[in-house]
Design goal:
The complex is a heterotrimer. Chain A contains 8 helices and no strands. By secondary structure, chain A is an all-alpha fold. In chain A, helix 1 packs across helix 5 and helix 2 packs parallel to helix 5. The longest helix of chain A is centred in the middle third of the chain and has 30 residues, at 113-142. The radius of gyration of chain A is 21 Å and the shape is globular. The N and C termini of chain A lie far apart (46 Å). Chain B contains 9 helices and 9 strands. The radius of gyration of chain B is 18 Å and the shape is globular. Chains in contact: A-B, A-C, B-C.
Chain lengths: 246, 233, 225
C-alpha cells in the first residue's frame, strides 16, 4: 500500500489574501468546534447539570423554605447554582485545548485573538443557557414556584447575566491556562469580578419570579448588568491577543 | 525582496535574564535550516517566537516581510510542535476540515480528504482521534500541518515522537517541499536524520548563535562535527 | 540621593500626621450629633482616596507594562497595589468601627460597603495570582491584564452612593458639608500626609521588587551554567 503519493502537489493555495477573512465565519467555526467536541463527550454539560441538581437539593434540605421565603431568595439561589455549575463548563473551555497542545494550532491559524475569544464565548454561552433552561423547571418543581409570570423579561435577564458569566469565565480560563494551581486560582479570581453582575442578576430575577415588572429601581440593576456585559466584552476583545501570545 | 524567514536581533527575556541573545538568522526558499544545540539552549523558545506564539523582548521576525502575528504570515506558515495539535473528540475529517476552514481554504473538505488519502488515513476518516493508534495520530498531525500548503515549515523536534511509518511520511513530504522551493526550519536532536535533509545548520549555545553556515560533507560524515568545532565544552 | 529624598518625604509625612493628630484629638471639640467618634472621618476618607488613587496608578502601570514592555512598570504595579490594599483595609476597618458606634452594627451589605470590600478582594486576588506564576515576564503580562479587569470595580465603588440609596453617608467634605474651616484644612493635610506616606512606601516596595527581579535573573544565570 503506498504510504505517500509522490506526485508533486498542485499548488492550489490562492495567492496571498489580505486581512482577516470574515470574522463572523471564524467565530462560527470555532464555536461549532467547541460545541461539537462537547456534544461528543458531554463531559462538562453532564457534570454541571448534576452539580446544579445537587445544589438545588442541598438548599432545599438546608433551608426547607416556605413559599414566601422561596420567593424572597429565588434569584440568589438560582444565580448561585448557575455560577457554580457554570464554572464547570467555563473551566473546560481552554482546558480543552491543552491535551495534544491544540492551543498552538489554534493560535497559529490566521484568526485573531478576538475571533478565538468570541467563538469560545459563544459556545460557552449556548451551553450555559441550555444548563439554565433545564435547571429552571427543576427549580420550579422542587421549590413549588411558578416562575413563568414574567417569562420574556426573565429570559432577557438570564441572557444578560449568562453573557457576563461567560465573558469573564472565558477570558479568565484563557488567562490562567498555563498557570499551576489553575483550578484553585480560577474561582478565587472569577467570583469577585462577577459580583456586580451576579448581584444585579439576582435582584432582577427575584423580582421577576415574584411577578413584578421591570420598573424603577430594577432599571438601575438592568443598566448595571448591561454595562458590565459591554465593558467586559470590549476589554476581553481588546486584551485576548495579549493573553494568548504575551 | 524579503526573505522567507528573517530573524533580526531577537532577544527574549525571562525577567532580566536573556534566554535568547541577539539572534540573527535568514532562510531563503528551498532552504532547510537545522537548529541544533543542547537542551535549554533556546531552540524551542526561538521556534515559538518565529511561529508567533510568544513575543520577542527585542528584535524583529519577518516571514516574507510580515510579522508572525499578521494573517499574511500565518497563512504561509505551518508548525509542528511536541503535541499533535488535533482534537481527540473530533474525527479525522472533522479536524482537518476545521483547520481548512480556519485557514480559509477554497474547498476545505476536499483538501481534507486529499490529505487523509496522502497520509494513509482515508479508511479511518470518520474515526475519532482518541481511538487512533499513536502512529495514526502522528500522521494526522503531519496532515494538519501541511493542509494549507505552507511555504514555511517550523518544526520543533519533528522526528522525536514519531514511529517509523510517520517518519517515512514526513521525510517524503519534506523532501518534496524542499524540491518545490519551500523553507523548513527544524530544531532537532536526531542529528543524522536532520543533517541528511538540511541545507544549512545553526548551532545555538546558551541563547546565542554559536555557528551558522551551510551543511558540509564533514557534518554528514560526523554528525558531532559542529559541536566539536563550535560547541562549548 | 534618592534615599535622602525618600527619608525627607517620610519625615514630612510624619510631621504632618503629628500635627493632624494633635488637632484631631486635642483641639477639636466633639461633634454635636456623633460625639467623639466623628474624628474617625479624618482617617477614613483620606485613606479611601489614597487607595483609589493607588488603584489608578496600578492601572496606568499595568497599561504601561503592556505597551512599553519595561518591567519597571510591573514592579510599580505590584508596589502600588500592595500599599493601596493596606490603605483600603484601613478605610474598611475605620468605617466598620464607625458603623458599630453610629449604626450599632459592624457591617451592612449596602452598595458602598460591598463594592469597597469587593475591590479589596479583587486586588488581593491580584497578589495571589502573581504568586502562582514563576516566570517574571509572563507574570507581568497576566497580572497586568487582571489588574485592568479589576479596575472596573473602582468606578462602581465611587458612584455606588449615587446609583443606589445607600446607608453609607453622602460625601461630607468638598460636597456642600458645613464644617469649620480648620476641619477642612486638617482633612486636606491628612490626605496630603497619606499620599506622601503611600508614595514613600510604594517607592520602597518598588526598589525591593527590582532587586527581587535581579536576584531571580542571577538565579537563572546560575542555572544556565
Amino acid at each position: 500500500m503506498p504510504v505517500v503519493e509522490t506526485r508533486s502537489q498542485p499548488r492550489t493555495a490562492p495567492a496571498v489574501r489580505r486581512g482577516w477573512t470574515s470574522l463572523p465565519r471564524q467565530i462560527a467555526v470555532i464555536a461549532w468546534k467547541d460545541l461539537r467536541a462537547e456534544m461528543r463527550t458531554k463531559e462538562a454539560l453532564n457534570a454541571s447539570f448534576a452539580f446544579a441538581l445537587v445544589i438545588l437539593l442541598l438548599f432545599s434540605f438546608a433551608f426547607d423554605p416556605t413559599e414566601e421565603q422561596t420567593r424572597a431568595i429565588s434569584g440568589g439561589l438560582l444565580w448561585i447554582v448557575f455560577a457554580f455549575a457554570g464554572t464547570l463548563v467555563l473551566n473546560r473551555s481552554f482546558a480543552r485545548e491543552l491535551p495534544n497542545d491544540c492551543l498552538d494550532a489554534l493560535v497559529a491559524a490566521p484568526v485573531s485573538g478576538s475571533a478565538i475569544f468570541l467563538g469560545k464565548a459563544l459556545a460557552n454561552f449556548v451551553l450555559l443557557m441550555a444548563l439554565e433552561l433545564v435547571s429552571l423547571p427543576v427549580f420550579g418543581i422542587f421549590y413549588n414556584v411558578r416562575w413563568t409570570a414574567q417569562f420574556w423579561p426573565l429570559l432577557l435577564v438570564l441572557a444578560l447575566g449568562t453573557w457576563g458569566l461567560t465573558v469573564i469565565g472565558t477570558i479568565f480560563s484563557a488567562l490562567t491556562v498555563n498557570i499551576r494551581l489553575r483550578e484553585v486560582m480560577l474561582p478565587l479570581l472569577v467570583y469577585p469580578i462577577l459580583i456586580p453582575a451576579l448581584m444585579a442578576a439576582m435582584q432582577l430575577s427575584t423580582a421577576l419570579i415574584a411577578g413584578q415588572p421591570l420598573t424603577g429601581d430594577m432599571l438601575v440593576w438592568l443598566r448595571l448588568l448591561a454595562g458590565f456585559d459591554v465593558i467586559f466584552t470590549a476589554l476581553s476583545i481588546i486584551l485576548m491577543e495579549t493573553v494568548l501570545v504575551g | 525582496m524579503s526573505h522567507a524567514v528573517e530573524v533580526e536581533g531577537v532577544w527574549k527575556f525571562y525577567g532580566d535574564y536573556p534566554a535568547l541573545r541577539d539572534i540573527g538568522l535568514k532562510a531563503e526558499p528551498g532552504v532547510c535550516l537545522a537548529l541544533i544545540g543542547r537542551n535549554g539552549a533556546g531552540k524551542t523558545t526561538l521556534l515559538r517566537i518565529m511561529a508567533g506564539f510568544s513575543q520577542p523582548g527585542k528584535g524583529r521576525i519577518g516571514i516574507f516581510g510580515h510579522t508572525p502575528r499578521e494573517p499574511e504570515a500565518r497563512r504561509r506558515m505551518g508548525f509542528i510542535g511536541h503535541g499533535i495539535s488535533v482534537y481527540d473528540e473530533l474525527s479525522a475529517i472533522e479536524n482537518l476540515t476545521l483547520f481548512g476552514r480556519l485557514y480559509d481554504l477554497p474547498a476545505p473538505r476536499r483538501s481534507a480528504e486529499e490529505w487523509l488519502e496522502r497520509t494513509g488515513l482515508a479508511h479511518v476518516r470518520d474515526g475519532l482521534v482518541r481511538e487512533f493508534s499513536r502512529g495514526m495520530r502522528q500522521r494526522l498531525a503531519v496532515a494538519r500541518a501541511f493542509l494549507h500548503d505552507p511555504d514555511v515549515l517550523l518544526m520543533d523536534e519533528p522526528f522525536t515522537a514519531l514511529d517509523d511509518r510517520a517518519i517515512a511520511v514526513l521525510q517524503t513530504l519534506l523532501h518534496d517541499a524542499l524540491a518545490q522551493g519551500r523553507t523548513i526550519i527544524m530544531s532537532t536532536h536526531q542529528l543524522r536524520e536532520a543533517l541528511e535533509l538540511a541545507t544549512d545548520v545553526a548551532l545555538l549555545n546558551r541563547g546565542r548563535v554559536a555557528f551558522t553556515g551551510p551543511r558540509t560533507a564533514e557534518m554528514l560524515a560526523d554528525p558531532g562535527w559542529v559541536y566539536a568545532h563550535y560547541g562549548e565544552n | 540621593m534618592r534615599e535622602k529624598v525618600l527619608y525627607a518625604l517620610g519625615i514630612v509625612a510624619a510631621l504632618l500626621i503629628a500635627r493632624n493628630l494633635f488637632h484631631i484629638f486635642l483641639r477639636f471639640p466633639d461633634e454635636a450629633s456623633q460625639g467623639a467618634i466623628f474624628r474617625i472621618i479624618f482617617f477614613h476618607v483620606p485613606a479611601a482616596m489614597t487607595a483609589l488613587l493607588g488603584a489608578v496608578v496600578a492601572l496606568v502601570a499595568s497599561v504601561g507594562w503592556l505597551t512599553t514592555r519595561r518591567l519597571r512598570f510591573d514592579s510599580l504595579a505590584v508596589a502600588v497595589t500592595e500599599v493601596s490594599l493596606a490603605f483600603l483595609a484601613a478605610n474598611l476597618i475605620t468605617g466598620s468601627i464607625w458603623g458599630r458606634i453610629i449604626w450599632g452594627i459592624w457591617w451592612t451589605w449596602d452598595a458602598r460597603l460591598t463594592s469597597a470590600l469587593v475591590c479589596w478582594l479583587l486586588y488581593a486576588g491580584y497578589l495571589m495570582l502573581r504568586r502562582a506564576i514563576e516566570e517574571p515576564t509572563q507574570r507581568a503580562t497576566v497580572a497586568a491584564v487582571y489588574s485592568i479587569f479589576a479596575f472596573v470595580d473602582v468606578p462602581i465603588v465611587i458612584f455606588s452612593i449615587k446609583w443606589w440609596r445607600t446607608q453609607h453617608p453622602q460625601p461630607v467634605f468638598w460636597a456642600g458639608g458645613s464644617f469649620p474651616a480648620d476641619w477642612y484644612w486638617t482633612a486636606l493635610l491628612m490626605l496630603l500626609a497619606m499620599l506622601l506616606l503611600g508614595g514613600v512606601l510604594t517607592a520602597i516596595r518598588l526598589r525591593q521588587e527590582e532587586t527581587q527581579r535581579e536576584i531571580d535573573s542571577m538565579r537563572r544565570y546560575a542555572h544556565a551554567m
